[in-house]
Prior knowledge:
single chain; 139 residues; alpha+beta; two-stranded antiparallel ribbon
Amino acid sequence: MSKMDQYAAIRKKMEDAQAEMRKIAKDAFIEAAGAIFNKYPGLKNASWTMYTPYFNDGDECTFGVNEVDTINGLNRYDREGEDEDGMIIVWEDWMESACDDMNGLVMSFDNNTMQSVFGDHCKVTVYRDKIEVEEYEHD
C-alpha cells in the first residue's frame, strides 16, 4: 500500500469517527436538554448565539459559543417582554436557574463540537421536542 493509500485510509477513518462523534454529541445534548426540560415544567425553549466574528481588533477571529441568555423568548437581561402571542411575560426566579442549567449544558461541549453539530453564524433554540438553528446576523 502506498503512502497516499495509507493517508486516504486514515483520512476516511477520521471522517467516519467525526461523523459518529457529531451524532453522539447531538444525541447526548438532546438527552441532557430533555432532563432540564423535565426539571422545569414551565420551560418552553432556551436559546443562544454562536459565531466566528468578522473582526477582532487585529486579533485572530475564532469561533465562539455565547451564553444561553433567552428563556421562553425572554432575554435574561431584559426581565420583561412579550411572548409569541403578545402576552406580557416577566422573568421569574426559576428561569434564572433553568438558564444556568442550560448554559452549563451548552458550555460542557467544546467549541469545535458545537460548531460541528449546529454550525456557524447561528442562533440555536432548543425546545422540548426539537432544535431550531437559524442564521444569525452579527458585527
